[in-house]
Amino acid sequence: MESHGPVRVRRCRALRCGARARGDGARGAAVGHPRHSKGELVGWVAIEALSVSYGDTRVLDDVSLRIPRGSLVAVLGPSGCGKTTLLRAVAGLLPVASGTITVGGRLVTGPGVQRAPEKRGMGWVPQDASLFPHLSVGENIGFGLPRTKQNDDLYCEPGETSGGVGGLLAGLTRRGRVARAPVRVSAPSSHLAAAPISPDRSRQTSRAARITELATLVGLTELVDRAPSQLSGGQAQRVSLARALAPRPDLMLLDEPFAALDPLLRSALRTEVAALLRGQHNTSLLVTHDQEEALSLADFVAVMRGGEILQFGTPADVYERPVDPWVAGFVGDTVELDGHWRDGRVECALGSLAADWMGVQSRSERSSGGPMGERGAASAPADGTSVRVLLRPEWLTLGARGSAQPTTDAVVTAIAYAGHDALVSFALADAEKTAVRARIAAPDLPRVGDRVTLGICQNALAYPLE
Length: 466
Prior knowledge:
- The chain has 466 residues and is α+β, with helices and mostly antiparallel strands.
- 25% of the residues lie in helices and 28% in strands.
- The chain contains 14 helices and 21 strands.
- The chain has helices at residues 13-22, 83-91, 137-141, 149-155, 164-170, 174-179, 207-217, 233-245, 263-279, 291-297, 315-320, 325-331, 363-368, 376-379; strands spanning 45-54, 57-67, 72-76, 98-103, 106-110, 113-114, 122-125, 251-255, 284-288, 300-305, 308-313, 335-342, 345-348, 351-357, 386-391, 396-398, 408-417, 421-428, 435-441, 451-456, 460-464.
- A hairpin with a 3-residue loop joins strand 17 (408-417) and strand 18.
- The relative contact order is 0.12.
- It comes from Cryobacterium suzukii.
């Protein structure tokens, strides 16, 4: 006897296995940043002693990094430092010379192990969106989702034949539903009525439902039938993000995804994307050369140079307690002076300042995420040792307001106006007329030639001379 009701098909094996592989069921739960007793971060993603070479050229040199679950980690560095190579190695797109990569306890790269990129459970968001031009927005979003005859049969409407990709996506919008011409199957005379849709069908992870969910999530519900050529740059990047999120990856990889956008759009979109990733509790690795982007978006920042990670920590750690003057200068503006260490203070052109000795951080400390600033007392130099004194421009203030340090006289020599504030250059009243800069809020700006008093509101940082 022929049945004319909808055919129920078991859920696709790929969907069942994907859920079981993650095995947590806690994607909607808040995720913390657990640490070992000695202060090191527990890594959901663990990169250990990774080295990558292009021929005889070593690009990554013994890189180690731990990414806590549910966090957004930014790899920050200048062009050519190896950050994109690191991302591609994690994705499985490059062979490694040595080292291991583990994701959620699964070894994906190691001695004798090189899991294929599509089997790593990772999503990739490239710099230029890279959408398929011959597919609609909805088809691009759903590209990485399982697409089989079983899926099409499971999710077609009662009495309709499966229509492949086009038929599956046609019901996503009202326009698509009107345009679709369903094929109805005539039921022969029979005392059996068509079977109703099973109540548990709504609980099946429908490919079409997932595409609709993601289109809504990235604010493109009304554009699922549109071609990529009809999208703006920001819309195209949203589609690329939704496509990467579709299979519910264990790790999201973002390769400078905002670099090609104009400044206003870049600022707005990166904030939206960071909020979206956190809302989905995704673990994400972002590579960028934009200091503001890394500091404003990431939970943790890894600073790279020459194929090595120089520092890993929270944005505040990296900005306020950089491991060396190069890192300090790369992530923000600095005021650097020569000085001498004496009894926990530095003597320099700004006077005798309270200071923190930064010392030298080992390679293992750089990637552990452990506490910083605790190495000063034991390794402080002898009195009279020449040191490099470093401050941030915003640590200098006009007058004694908020100053916890001695004050010094200065003359305003130049003002670089930026609207909300300005970088003001001063010549100090010492024999060398030492030049320093302070970041001053726009309402408090002096004029060129004004004589002012400079104070310092935070301890200076002292580094050994190289």
